[in-house]
Design a protein that fits this description.
By secondary structure, this protein is mainly alpha-helical. The two termini are 25 Å apart.
């Protein structure tokens, strides 16, 4: 109960900050109206509870953030080079990647990470089989495809190390999750 209340207060503060940033001025009127809008959203439009089944490991989370930042920079440079390189456009394809993550929350995080990294975008998610179908730029040779699958495997491994270690995993007992 305490955790839920702390989370609600955090969400209200976050929504207030977004409201203030949208208006562009820090004033008492914006703070009060932001509080009002945040409370209306929290009370009248509640989101369903998302089961948290694992534990966050801060050191692994830091490694995940650094690795994703590295891929963001590397892929941005590669896509920029492909854009200015003379010659025919690079070969692109839709590739399938299986992820061994257990949680829907971690699967959604993985999809967001892959969508952020330039050069690929998730087109379809097979939630039951944990399969992602991604459009990938520059897959003209085996080395490029191996690099893509290596990147997917590394991100998957880091997500599991950060959120789904076997010793910390407690499957949700919510009836809605079992259906």
């Amino acid at each position: 109960m305490m955790r839920r209340n702390i989370l609600r207060v955090w969400v209200v503060c976050w929504l207030m900050l977004v409201w203030i940033l949208l208006w562009g001025t820090f004033s008492a009127a914006n703070i009060l109206s932001g509080l009002l809008v945040a409370l209306v959203i929290i009370l009248l439009l509640p989101l369903p509870a998302v089961p948290v089944e694992g534990r966050v490991h801060p050191l692994s989370l830091l490694r995940l953030i650094v690795t994703v930042a590295y891929y963001l920079v590397l892929s941005s440079v590669q896509v920029a080079f492909l854009a200015i390189k003379p010659g025919p456009p690079p070969l692109s394809a839709v590739l399938r990647a299986h992820l061994a993550v257990k949680s829907d929350l971690v699967l959604a995080l993985a999809v967001n990470i892959f969508n952020l990294i330039p050069g690929s975008i998730v087109l379809e998610i097979d939630q039951s089989r944990r399969m992602l179908y991604m459009h990938v730029i520059n897959v003209g040779n085996e080395r490029a495809m191996a690099r893509f699958y290596s990147q997917v495997t590394e991100v998957e491994r880091m997500l599991i190390a950060t959120f789904e270690r076997e010793k910390d995993w407690r499957p949700s007992t919510d009836k809605a999750d079992r259906a």
